[in-house]
Amino acid sequence: MQDYLTIMKACAEAAGVHPRKFVLPTDHSAQFGDVELHWLDWGNPDAPPVLLLHGGSLTAHTWDMVVLGLQHKYHFVALDQRGHGDSGWTPETDLALDAGDLMLRDTKAFIDYLDFPDLALVGMSMGGINTIRYASRFGKHLRAVGIVDVAPVSMQEGQREMADYRDQTDTLNHFEEFVDRSKKFMPHRAEAHLRYSLFHSLKQTSDGRYTWKRDTRPRPASSLSETKVTIASDRREAELWQDVRRIQQPTLLFRGEESKILSTHTAERMIEELPNGMLVTIARATHNVHSDNPVDFAIALDDFLNAA
């Protein structure tokens, strides 16, 4: 397999990203309560800081192409959230706890640890929900908030497609099998870009096969009835809409033009509910907005951060 920098350059070429220079981030990790968290720091410490939170089943490297285009202007830090990438997994004793609550706790501890003034926080999908919850509760010091293709409600079609893809590619014999499956699932993405993502998202098992860098352990079965589960889900949705209404900072909602997760109707409702919200729709992008079209995403993010 090729080295990190070589495949980064190939990915950037395929994605149309032409950075001033190619920079590799530095890896860091530290213990936060019950879990060790890993993150990438892209340097440029005197520039305005931006913390990036990835989506479910992804890693901090999902932001690499966006960061390459803007690294000279900002100090980017990208976190591997618990159970993802090179961060630790939730201890067995805590598996029954709400994963979102644990990630919110991690995010607060990590941001307190970074101690950046005037931080901008940007989260995609799972990381976007985490961003919404953090900004509504602890975000007084945030200067700007970015939410990428997510809202308190999602379209079922996109959720089913992503779940099917995860189930069909849990563990495969060869790296190339993942490449082939990914090309079918994301035919719009250049192969060099897919290879780069897989390079950072996969690990080898003890028997030499490949699997995702994510926590796939089953959570304890709920003793709640189906009715009570539905009520709990409805309550969480209502709480998230309340969180959205409490975010006071300038907030940019990114939606992929071809998203099957965030509908146009729900995106418009988000802007109505956000006290200081704006919407940008990124062309040639699905749910993975920042990966599908990193050039236009970076332009929109830069314009937003300059104005915030």
The coarse silhouette is globular
| Class of secondary structure makeup | alpha/beta
CATH topology assignment of the domain at 4-11 and 20-156 and 250-307: Rossmann fold
Order of helices and strands: HEEEHEHEHEHEHHEEHEHEHH
The main sheet comes to: 8 strands, mixed
Uncertain parts: 222-229
Helix share of residues? 40-55%
- Which range does the strand content fall in? 15-25%
CATH class of the domain at 4-11 and 20-156 and 250-307: Alpha Beta
CATH architecture of the domain at 4-11 and 20-156 and 250-307: 3-Layer(aba) Sandwich
Number of strands: 11
The span between the termini is 42 Å
Mean pLDDT: 93
Q: What's the total helix number?
A: 11
Radius of gyration: 19 Å
For the biggest β-sheet, the strand order reads 1-2-4-3-5-6-10-11
CATH homologous superfamily classification of the domain at 4-11 and 20-156 and 250-307: Alpha/Beta hydrolase fold, catalytic domain
Describe the structure.
This protein has 308 residues and is an alpha/beta fold. It has a domain at 4-11 and 20-156 and 250-307: Alpha/Beta hydrolase fold, catalytic domain (Rossmann fold). It has eleven helices and eleven strands. The protein has an eight-stranded mixed beta sheet, with helices on both faces. Strand 3 (49-53), helix 2 (64-70) and strand 4 form a beta-alpha-beta unit. Helix 1 (4-15) runs antiparallel to helix 7, helix 3 (99-114) packs across helix 4 and helix 4 packs across helix 8. The termini are far apart.
